[in-house]
Fold each of these.
Amino acid sequence: MRLKNQQHSKWKPIIKQFEAVLGKNGVVQRKEELITYECDGLTSYRQRPAVVVLPRTTEQVAEVVKICDRNLIPFIARGSGTGLSGGALPIEDCVLIVTAMMRQILKIDLENQQVVVQPGVINNWVTQTVSGAGFYYAPDPSSQIICSIGGNVAENSGGVHCLKYGVTTNHVLGLKLVLPDGTVTEVGGQVPEMPGYDLTGVFVGSEGTLGIATEITLKILKTAESICVLLADFTSVEAAGAAVSDIISAGIIPAGMEMMDNLSINAVEDVVATGCYPRDAEAILLVEIDGLAVEVAANKQRIADICKQNGARSITTANDPETRLKLWKGRKAAFAAAGHLSPDYYVQDGVIPRTQLPFVLQEIENLSKQYGYRIANVFHAGDGNLHPLILYNNSIPGALEKVEELGGEILKLCVKVGGSISGEHGIGADKRCYMPDMFTETDLETMQYIRQAFNPQGLANPGKIFPTPRTCGEAARSEAAKKFESLERF
Amino acid sequence: MRLKNQQHSKWKPIIKQFEAVLGKNGVVQRKEELITYECDGLTSYRQRPAVVVLPRTTEQVAEVVKICDRNLIPFIARGSGTGLSGGALPIEDCVLIVTAMMRQILKIDLENQQVVVQPGVINNWVTQTVSGAGFYYAPDPSSQIICSIGGNVAENSGGVHCLKYGVTTNHVLGLKLVLPDGTVTEVGGQVPEMPGYDLTGVFVGSEGTLGIATEITLKILKTAESICVLLADFTSVEAAGAAVSDIISAGIIPAGMEMMDNLSINAVEDVVATGCYPRDAEAILLVEIDGLAVEVAANKQRIADICKQNGARSITTANDPETRLKLWKGRKAAFAAAGHLSPDYYVQDGVIPRTQLPFVLQEIENLSKQYGYRIANVFHAGDGNLHPLILYNNSIPGALEKVEELGGEILKLCVKVGGSISGEHGIGADKRCYMPDMFTETDLETMQYIRQAFNPQGLANPGKIFPTPRTCGEAARSEAAKKFESLERF
């Protein structure tokens, strides 16, 4: 009881200030309501925030951040909470700024092919809003029916259609930002290239450590005249990998090119029963081709030929939206299906140079055997972005630790072959310890320059991305926490 | 004589240190040799540097920068000196670090479609090196046979082929950097998306204010199966502009789409006599289409139809390399040809949303009449990147000032319609006074965060990009200059 009262007394004046800005409905502080916000999509780590706020406007976000800044309270932004690297994982005594009430599409400018949205807008809504006029928003994470554009910006999200069109950073033209001291600023603009430093580029993928985006200008693309999905099935993963290499080497850039292995194929067939994925295939390739009808027809033929040359047993193609959706259905459900294979699964996200695919897949199989955990492979093959799903049972003591170690080995393997420890899920809380495997101390310190410049008090999403409280940003955070405690606890 | 000796005594110990790193041949200090380095492509401003150094390796650049840092001497990097915004304009008492000796192609990795080059490598060499294997480097500034990749990185250069494939920043995967204190660091890597802040993106276009790139990893593209250039001529600039809009609205993204007006057409026909550009046309469009043969054929037809619907008098197309080159020849020579129309010309570089083309071109014509200077328009129509060439005679007193004022009015017009004051030439020394027209004080201060973080002493290319010595970076520079003077002048 004493502890509870202490907690209460410490936050009371702060909550009063939040309520003055947001109203009572805009502040969540009851323990049972706070449980929802204990973790994001990385469910293996949990921490209840002290308080959750639900702003609706840029001004409200700025006021909330100013209160945090004045009182040295760390704050963490959260979109839909679907992130897989724990980027929105709370820390003790933090304020969670949730953008779920910021769901307005503010401007639709079809002539200049752009829309302006609030950060809470769901990814899929953008395409839904403009598809009638023949446009779409390209980045499409598997979670696109629930994840928010703000979260996509924070994590620089990808998706199956990012091979040809690029990840989120390639589709953000400008941002209205609330900086960690509550200042409102704008970066980028309506035209793609702007003078001065590319702050839009720095902010996208900064995982909430540089401030909060409150208005986002997105580029939308014209829907292609023709779209075709091609499914090829192979009797070995290596053959499928070789087909991927040959397609790219032939100068073809499909809209997307995905691979799934036998374990994933059977998992999705068990769960969503597409009926299209041969259960005995060692690997399938799903290739989406878009463009003019003549171009799609020609590329379809070329891709089919390359797949056959690499030993594909069968080729299925789909031209109409319904059949295309059916072919994609299994891939989109792959993560969810993994949940049916095993009580728990851990998704890893690494990138390798495409040419290393066969070697790395073999090594992953070796690691799987060595550690004794099954690994299902689902990935963006075209850009070498792997998503090994490690299947385990969290109720077995020590399993999570072993699985994390195995995940770490996979990441180190990616780095060893010249790749990266994250393709589209971000570093967050989950992978910061692997940053030194990829970057030298100098490289990391150079990144910290940016963090310190934007976030000198270290209050914006502390403890994310960077491995250790190496420099003053993080040190300041501990100072901030100490000061806050001493201020409120007497 | 006294002054000269003072100058000499001040620099003597510094030059000795440079010579110890670079040898006597690596240091230029004779007045008559320094004249070459007084300006870059923006010839209306000149300032002789105190000394020029010619490093060959990353280590030598780092040593030179360390000497500058220890002695508080400002330094400015220079590539081929073709920049049009004065980004490599020296200041008094500075060291100019010229990359002309850093011209090695360090690595060619065709499998992963990338090359690693030193900054002095000429833009065109990259394509020449890989074209035999069926690849090319996309960004192609008009100066591509002489400009350096390092300069392209500094200014985030564009070119006629950047409509479809993007400007320099879209083609740089990674950088080895010498930071302003002489630390060597690496940003980006071999795969396109890397975790942490996008420092590669921040560095590209930072105009030498954050350090010096000494190794650059570039993405190369597969040469398209088929390329076609289409020339359409129009009896009004508005009709050509409407055709541009309609082509993009139809969902076609040509590799490049350029427009030239009557004055430019006649200038290039006078000088290079292509014989292909109708002298009585009010505007011509040059459209390059690439892709599969069937795709190019289909798009050629669609573009020709759209041009005709917008009143094009004639359509010429070229499929073979020789004829394509002939059609491009005039466009590539446009800036040089302007020099034959008038003793001097001033190239402006602004961006507008494409939909504003007809309005802005009309307004530029009005400004031309109002100020009494002829303006030739040559531009990347597809991405709304204007290059008005203002023709004048610099020997008439006050002419340059009027022309700069007129150029400024054009930039303000670009900003008014939602555009930008630079598309591909950078801000440099020339346009920093227009930054407040485009950005608020907060926006500029946010950019300065980055500069101060990387460049706290303010020694790397001081006085560029930002309008005033607003914050401590620049203030530090004045301090540095003062200290340096007081140190050496007693």
Amino acid sequence: MLLDETTLPYYARGAAILGAGGGGSTRSGLLAALQAVQELGPVEVVSLDDVPDDALILPTAGLGSPDITLEKIGNPQQGVWLRDAMERELGRPAYAWMAAEVGGNNALKPVVWAAHTGLPLVDADGMGRAYPEVQMISMHLHGVPATPTVLVDERGHHVVFRDMDAQWLERTARALSVAFGGFSVTVDHSLDGATARTATVRGSVSRAVRIGEILSDTSLGDTVDRLAPLGGHVLVTGKIAEVNRRTVGGFARGNVLVDGVAGDRDRLVRVEIQNENLAVLEEGEVLASVPDVITALDSQTGEVIFTEELRYGQRVTLVALPAPDMWRTEAGLALVGPRAFDYDFDYIPVEELVARRKESVS
Amino acid sequence: MLLDETTLPYYARGAAILGAGGGGSTRSGLLAALQAVQELGPVEVVSLDDVPDDALILPTAGLGSPDITLEKIGNPQQGVWLRDAMERELGRPAYAWMAAEVGGNNALKPVVWAAHTGLPLVDADGMGRAYPEVQMISMHLHGVPATPTVLVDERGHHVVFRDMDAQWLERTARALSVAFGGFSVTVDHSLDGATARTATVRGSVSRAVRIGEILSDTSLGDTVDRLAPLGGHVLVTGKIAEVNRRTVGGFARGNVLVDGVAGDRDRLVRVEIQNENLAVLEEGEVLASVPDVITALDSQTGEVIFTEELRYGQRVTLVALPAPDMWRTEAGLALVGPRAFDYDFDYIPVEELVARRKESVS
């Protein structure tokens, strides 16, 4: 498969849904990726089946608060700097890039890096969605070391981290991102082809493209209708009544109140945010939570509204999609379930929560 | 010259005075250095005249707030980690250690590193005293690049900084030190023998030993008498009336009020602190300021009281010694003069300030 001017918009649309409101807006990321493939040619997406066992794969993502990326758009050379530094660190050539998370702009950055380095992108990622913290990644779940890690800012400053576990990396690399102005890009949890076949969420890139194609097929009804075959559930339709969002400790944190409209009149729903949408609550009841994918759509256009774009008065439809199976296991939930974000409730799959609500209404 | 069980106590005493209240208390540093030379043999101090032109010198210091070091005493292996990482980074063997600053515990850490790595210490440093920030160093004044820099914590976590100037390094490495728990150790501004002969404060280690010997010679009168031939001036003798000191942004910051006693009765003097003692003020008048060396002595014992040890009720004698000539130049003052610390006054040498006060009194 190729990512080019035709497929990239689908990929970006799928990545937007999978971002759970995070990973950074795909708007500027899509523009940067389109420009890169126009200038340098399409990016090849390779199946992990075709990657040699010992080939070096570089998972990459931004680190910081997506709010910052509205003004700080990065530098296309960052991919070259990251690749060169990782090759120097490991003493062997890189084979391919991987999106650390297939959600939001973090799905598109590796496309820019790939175009600028002439390397392909593997059809996989580390989350099957987006999560806010470094250790919330499939490679961590499978024992792949977090370091060596390379971090660069947009000016060309380089930092290499060694001999650190994922939690220490999260703590220290996040602090460094704040010192660099709130955002930087990294390669961490690098791995070889053989390991990647078990330690990643496979098929993520082609899945995102497919989701984008389905969402763009107007013959399938409106956006909500198109999401249904993907397992999508509508949580509420309403108007944003309040946005509490601050950039704190290298994250966008806060919550959003949605006032129900039409059939949802008299409902008041709260979305909890840490870069991504973490949970939706109504009168103390959980409507959906991590690891399921919670996304706010513009009720008129069906476009994803990223957390950094939420504003008072927007008409929104909150939808939830089931998490990849990996995150619904005991080990997965320990890493990315509600309690990993300090919420005092257990995870219940969104489809079960929806069925319960229907029962109680009828 | 050798640093051994005989000379180390003198060296520590000189380093304490030159620390300007900062660089960390020499008490625990002296114990660590004594233990290292007892276990591993004395450390050789080599003149820069005897260092080959292309020999690699590693300047080292702690980075963080000295308050933290009261509880976080470090790990003797840190020197081995720093040396190994710098050798890997530069692809050549290290020849010797250098104290980035000859003041406080930072004068003694390199002795521990030297003993544990079997390398000598050069008779020089980067300040001729102690300063709080990374760029406040003679190598920066002489155009030596700040990076590559290696930073390690006491657990063995490694971070390498590349392609950064001294101000960016100060900002980002400081943030990282805070994330590591408030203190870490670094090698930065590494240089070769030829460069060191012009870009350092030469003879610092032997000077500190000599100062320690003079201060320990009871035949020369009390501590104040012994400081006089070194250019020392007494600013005030009093009792600490108030200590405002917080650990903020990776520094110990605050001020201390000293209430005059005996001949200084009815005087109230304020000491401004950022790790080191920066300035002494009395009713809006400057008594002494950076780059001159301001040190608080215990009025009874003559021992240095480091900023992290200042407490209400202590009897103190504030003394000031002239700064090394390098810092009294225009370029030197731009880097470490009062305005570099955001004070709105120009530097006047302490001996001139003392002469003016004597005149106005008589």
